[in-house]
Amino acid sequence: MNRALPFVFLLALSAPAFGQTVNAPGAKQLSDDLSRYVGKQALDKGVLKVSVEGDAYKIAFDFKALAGALPEQKLLKFDFAPLALLVKPRSDGSWDVSMDFSQDASFEFNGPEGLQSTQFSIKDGKGAGVYDPNLAAFTSATSSMAGMTMASKDAKQHMNVTSGAGTATVAATKSATGGVDFTTSQKVANFVEAINFDDPESGLKFPVTVKSPELSVEAAGKGVRTKPLLDLLAFAVANEDEATLKANQAQLKSLMLAALPVWERIDGTYGFKDFTVESPVGNFGAAQLGVAFGSDGVAQSGTITYGIKASGLTVPHQLLPSWSVALLPTDIDLNFGGANIDLDTMAKKAIEAFDLNQNPPLSADFGDKLKADFMAKNPKVVIGHSTVKNGDMEIALEGEMTIPGEMANAKPDANLTVDVAGFDKIVSSLQEAAKAEPEIGQYVPVALMAKGFAKTLPDGRLEWVVYTKSDGSVTVNGVMLKPADPAVDDSVNEDDSGEGAEPDQTTP
């Protein structure tokens, strides 16, 4: 939260500075600019305040004033120190920005599980950067902290999070295709999260501690439509009244279209070194653990990707049968996602069709029509090249499945390629396991039958290429395992209930 708020403050810097003199009229102008995005009430009630401090403007945010202004006050305790930025105009129209986001805060409120409380502390938190109002983004910025702690608890769960020193950087440039291209990087040392589940009703007590000496986050984006998104925010603030919003919905639609595709592409990764999970049943761990994600924006043929990568995996052996230890993976690299995702058509049709003067704003059958249009583009589920391996074996797979449209009885087209190194090791492990657990023996003939369908590659690996088609047929390495389904005659007359009509008994 403390890192997101400065971005809101910087909305006030939407007008180029050009080295203007820092004075009281300038502070008034900044207040007016800021009110466009946060509303005049935030300034009138003291939630936000702009003042002159030396050769810079101070933009202060008072959390307590915000809490007091919220309706239906449920907070029992609220203690937050104000947060402030210093902003100084530069000769090129951008702004120098600095802040101290050190914080010691706490609050309590009545939640769904009863009384809930949170305390957190950020030590020596500092940030600085250059903000370009023409891009509505930092062209460069850095931040750091000496450490962080957070504790929260309710009736059934206690959580404590601590971390050591952390750093972050951000950079942005104007995109060649419109919007902003950005990169960001963050590292935090000595991350520890301890969660203690203690449910008096069920008697469940289960403490879990997650540790990593280094947590890192990397992200990059292309064509992020920062300025149109700010215009949408300004419109929302200016049209809080329902009647005004309805009257100005044509402008709203125009602004929404201008913000598309929101971004062209965003990719990011989370990574942990020497990741450990301590639990009552033993410790789980990985020398390296990472999660990757990526998404196109609102596009006609967009893609989404996810990935999980881990090396040096360990699990408590006492939880597993002894024979399975030899089959446990030590490294995984899983990649999956989607393709042919048409969000552009959906978004534009929805923007064109909605009418705030109607209830509901979209017709009852609009969702069904939109779904049919989406499915008509044949979106795909994609398995990128993925591997699961240990010292004796490796399983690799990749493929895709095309989701069928709205046609009755439609089946997906799919293909999957599976390569296995060390297949004989897998079979021998199953055979050895069957000596102690005879029920395991039933899998041995299945494995041997699968080997019979395999193609042996030059490096000795076994490969299966599986195709399933919309006609229901299945082939493995070119061998038909299942023929096409019998053709279904869809021309049978049906009555209104969907059931077959009785034959006409009328004599001609």
Plain-language structure description:
With 508 residues, the chain is an alpha+beta fold. 21% of the residues lie in helices and 44% in strands. The protein contains eleven helices and 25 strands. It has helices at residues 5-9, 24-38, 40-44, 63-69, 226-238, 242-247, 249-259, 343-353, 366-376, 423-436, 443-453; strands at 48-53, 56-61, 75-79, 83-89, 95-100, 103-111, 114-123, 126-132, 137-145, 147-153, 157-163, 166-174, 180-199, 204-224, 265-279, 282-296, 302-311, 331-341, 380-389, 394-402, 413-421, 455-456, 462-468, 474-476, 479-482. The chain starts with a helix and ends in a 26-residue tail after the last strand.
Short structural summary:
With 508 residues, this protein is of the alpha+beta class. The protein is built from eleven helices and 25 strands.
The portion of residues assigned to helices is: 10-25%
Q: Count the helices. How many?
A: 11
Number of strands: 25
Mean pLDDT across the residues is 88
The end-to-end distance, rounded to whole angstroms, is 80 Å
Low-pLDDT sequence parts: 1-9, 496-508
Largest sheet: 25 strands, antiparallel
Question: What integer value in Å does the Rg equal?
Answer: 30 Å
Shape type = globular
Structure class: alpha+beta
Strand residue content: 35-45%
Identify the notable features of this structure and list them briefly.
single chain, 508 residues, 11 helices, globular, 25 strands, 25-stranded antiparallel β-sheet, disordered N terminus, alpha+beta, disordered C terminus, 21% helix
